[in-house]
UniProtKB/TrEMBL annotation:
Name of this protein: Phosphoglucomutase
Swiss-Prot/TrEMBL GO biological process terms: glucose metabolic process; purine ribonucleoside salvage
Family: Belongs to the phosphohexose mutase family.
Domain Alpha-D-phosphohexomutase alpha/beta/alpha: start-end pairs: 50-189, 234-329, 341-469
Classification via InterPro entries: A-D-PHexomutase_a/b/a-I (IPR005844), A-D-PHexomutase_a/b/a-I/II/III (IPR016055), A-D-PHexomutase_a/b/a-II (IPR005845), A-D-PHexomutase_a/b/a-III (IPR005846), A-D-PHexomutase_C_sf (IPR036900), A-D-PHexomutase_CS (IPR016066), Alpha-D-phosphohexomutase_SF (IPR005841)
Keywords per UniProt: Carbohydrate metabolism, Cytoplasm, Glucose metabolism, Isomerase, Magnesium, Metal-binding, Phosphoprotein
GO molecular function, one term: phosphopentomutase activity
Source organism, top-level taxon: Eukaryota
Cofactor(s) it depends on: Mg(2+)
Length: 613
């Protein structure tokens, strides 16, 4: 073995990269680092390896085993392929695996490399011939009874990133043990086969099929069947009258043609698209972050379009169209309100019940289920207690909600809706993942119906829901931290809070003014609210997540992001219906959150950068 750095581990990985990589650009990147003798950077790139996180793989596109590039994609596809061959019989191979890709740099290339690996292994492949919205992959898995599926996307991450989102044959994102087993299979199949690079063979194989036309037709047919005829009639009436319209932005992603078609099929008013952002553009030229979750900073062009055309409602997808944001103008004050994910989850959750009753008038609500992640609003719980349906909480991420929905469906239960505060919504079970296209369609249908029948805006409807079920105010945000050791230190301090004593957590904030009732730590498995002191939800030592329940009803969760260098916090104060001083509750919430951030996270000491908005 050649000696480059003197570190035998690093030298071995350098040699393997030089031997294995066939992409001239990434191969030269490593060679240039070698010429510069930049061994710290080579160590980072080559001694660390991408692992499956919250959303599969997601990282910067560049050379290195810790990044997204041709070689890592081939290794990943080879591992995934071998695992699928272990899990299924050879006669099942004809069921196929589906691959989709978004409009980012290299997305199509990564999908084609993956497809090549599977075809070379005699497994049928459904490779979308056009870029698609992420929901089209899990949708196709269910429709075609596929073995698995992959969407190549980094969703709303910066333009430098890409990702690899894996779904199992049940149509939901992979959870344990699949994720760990796939990771092991990747490590057992690191050497790229000569045949894995031969994407040219995709033009000559009968094992490859483009499902686009069939799935496009089926998706919109299915979407329409999930809307009662009476709501379609109202949509058509509002469209003809022309007194309700929506601005739409695809955020330089794939959403526009899909949402446009969805609105046609649901008889909704024609959209006014933000022209500068409606076509897929991997540069995301008009936004700092292509993430509608960022609030007004990401919706500036949408607001300008709405003002220019006297429209008071804005719908926004993220670049892979699996999330939905919504903003509404108060025509009395002229102020725009950007709804947060919990507010949209409240509205869509309420509407999912009305919608389901419209489709199934004799439904037993005791057989119906609505889901939310543990860091999302508890408003659906308050609604469930009064309306007689069931509410279930899962870990963060749609991989948990999708798989939980499948378990319920296997027990002949009706899953109406699931949501997470990060503007992700699953309306019906046609797609067992968040779907920004169907969410936009149902939200717009709700807006048309409320406007036509009660003269209500969504802001007013939200207030009505709070009046009935209790005001739920939230304060969710994040702080940037790109140093893993700092994050580890912050959470370690919270677990050793009293003079460094292990297993001791904070007991109050603001010098004892607000006392903590119980603590749940899903990193270590502690839950002081349980009789046995152990957490009920799944525990993961590889991610940080602590929830503090205060005596006054405030709940706050601090956790690390699975896809970005952030510490996130999610706080909610749940009031009873008789508590009407919402302003006072909001003030208490904001004061407590400010204190928690200062006392628990110590942003100045730890050099944590706040969110832009």
């Amino acid at each position: 073995m050649a000696i480059y750095s003197g570190d035998s581990n690093l030298d071995e990985q350098i040699e393997l990269w030089l031997k294995w990589d066939r992409n001239a650009q990434t191969l030269n990147e490593i060679k240039e680092l070698l010429i510069k003798k930049d061994f710290p950077k080579l160590s980072k790139r080559l001694l660390e390896r991408l692992t499956f996180g919250t959303a599969g793989l997601r990282a910067c596109m560049r050379a290195g085993f810790d990044s997204m590039n041709d070689l890592v994609i081939i290794q990943t596809a080879q591992g995934l392929c071998e695992y699928i061959k272990e899990q299924y019989k050879e006669e099942d191979y004809k069921r196929g695996v589906v691959f989709g890709f978004d409009g980012r740099y290299n997305s199509k290339r990564f999908a084609e490399l993956s497809a090549t690996v599977f075809v070379q292994n005699k497994i049928k492949v459904y490779l979308y011939g056009h870029m698609v919205a992420t929901p089209f992959v899990p949708f196709a898995i269910l429709q075609k009874h596929c073995l698995a599926g992959v969407m190549v996307t980094a969703s709303h991450n910066p333009k430098e990133d890409n990702g690899y989102k894996v779904y199992w044959g049940n149509g939901a994102q992979i959870i344990s043990p699949h994720d760990k087993n796939i990771q092991k299979a990747i490590l057992d199949n690191l050497e790229p086969k000569e045949s894995s690079w031969r994407t040219d063979m995709l033009t000559r194989t009968e094992l490859l099929e483009d499902p686009f036309e069939e799935m496009h037709e089926l998706y919109f047919q299915t979407l329409r069947t999930h809307i009662p005829q009476k709501y379609l009639d109202v949509n058509q009436q509002q469209k003809e009258q022309g007194n309700i319209r929506f601005v739409y932005t695809a955020m330089h992603g794939v959403g526009w043609p899909f949402v446009k078609r969805a609105f046609q099929i649901a008889c909704l008013p024609n959209l006014a698209p933000v022209e500068e952002q409606k076509e897929a553009d991997p540069e995301f030229p008009t936004v700092k972050f292509p993430n509608p979750e960022e609030g007004k900073s990401s919706l500036q062009l949408s607001i300008k379009k709405a003002e220019d055309e006297s429209i008071s409602m804005i719908l926004a997808n993220d670049p892979d169209a699996d999330r939905l944001a919504y903003a509404e103008k108060d025509n009395e004050t002229g102020v725009w309100k950007v709804f947060n994910g919990n507010e949209l989850g409240t509205l869509l959750g309420w509407w999912s019940i009305e919608n389901y009753k419209g489709l199934h008038p004799d439904v037993d609500m005791g057989e119906c289920y609505l889901l939310a992640s543990t860091v999302s609003s508890k408003i659906l719980l308050a609604m469930a207690e009064r309306e007689g349906f069931n509410f279930i909480e899962t870990l963060t991420g749609f991989k948990w909600m999708g798989n939980r929905a499948i378990e319920l469906m296997q027990q002949d239960k009706h899953v109406l809706f699931a949501f997470e505060e990060a503007i992700g919504f699953m309306f019906s079970t046609a797609v067992l993942d968040k779907d920004g296209i169907s969410a936009a369609t149902h939200l717009a249908t709700m807006a048309c119906y409320l406007h036509a029948t009660e003269g209500l805006t969504l802001t007013k409807k939200l207030q009505q829901i709070y009046q009935k079920y209790g005001y739920h105010c939230t304060n969710c945000s994040y702080l940037f931290c790109d140093q893993p050791e700092v994050i580890k230190r912050i959470f370690s301090r919270l677990r050793n809070f009293e003079n460094g004593q292990p297993g001791t957590y904070p007991s109050s904030i603001l010098n004892g003014e607000f006392r903590i009732k119980n603590i749940r730590d899903l990193t270590t498995g502690i839950d002081t609210a349980q009789p046995h002191g152990l957490a009920i939800l799944p525990v993961s030592s590889s991610s940080q997540m602590i929830t503090f329940n205060f005596e006054n009803g405030l709940v706050i969760t601090l956790r690390t992001s699975g896809t970005e260098p952030k510490i996130k916090y999610y706080a909610e104060l749940c009031a009873k219906p008789e508590e009407k001083d919402w302003g006072k509750l909001r003030t208490i919430l904001d004061r407590m959150v400010e204190a928690i951030v200062e006392e628990f996270l110590q942003p100045c000491l730890n050099n944590l950068k706040p969110k832009a908005d």
